[in-house]
Design goal:
Blueprint: H1 2-5, H2 29-38, H3 47-68, H4 86-91, H5 96-104, E1 106-109, E2 115-118, H6 126-129, E3 140-141, E4 144-145
Antiparallel strand pairs: 1-2, 3-4
Length: 154
């Protein structure tokens, strides 16, 4: 509890200073418009909007740069978002004892060519099958949703 009571760092320490980051690469207005077009996002409606977007993008790039500088020497890469301790791995290990119940549900059919039949209980999937995938789409074209974007000026 004592360790967690006083944080040792803050996300704010990774953000650029209010005066603006000097080490962050500068993003031009043209690059911003190109990124917005690739993302199918609308261009800024005013110069103030554009400046705000450029400042936000610059702050995000500064944040990523600070994260990339964190020393991860000796840190194991994350394989999955789950408990990766030895105890959890042992708990999830499949052995003959853990398969006993699954084997008990199998039925061997046939005298000469024995085939295994598994108990196939039907699953009620009507909620999944009747899901309206395009229900929240603003624009549709047949069975597809439409993303509006502007073509680049050539």
């Amino acid at each position: 509890e004592r360790l967690l009571a006083n944080p040792t760092w803050s996300v704010e320490s990774l953000l650029p200073p209010k005066a603006g980051a000097t080490d962050t690469p500068k993003i031009s207005s043209q690059q911003l418009h190109h990124l917005l077009r690739l993302s199918a996002l609308p261009p800024p409606s005013s110069p103030e909007d554009e400046k705000k977007m450029l400042d936000t993008l610059s702050a995000q790039l500064h944040f990523v740069g600070e994260i990339q500088q964190v020393d991860t020497t000796g840190v194991e890469p994350l394989r999955a978002i789950r408990d990766e301790t030895r105890a959890a791995e042992k708990e999830h290990k499949i052995t003959m004892e853990t398969l006993t119940e699954a084997f008990a549900q199998e039925k061997v059919v046939g005298k000469h060519h024995k085939r295994i039949q598994r108990n196939t209980d039907s699953v009620d999937a009507t909620d999944v099958e009747n899901w309206a995938v395009l229900g929240s789409a603003e624009r549709k074209a047949g069975k597809f949703f439409v993303v509006e974007s502007e073509r680049p000026v050539e």
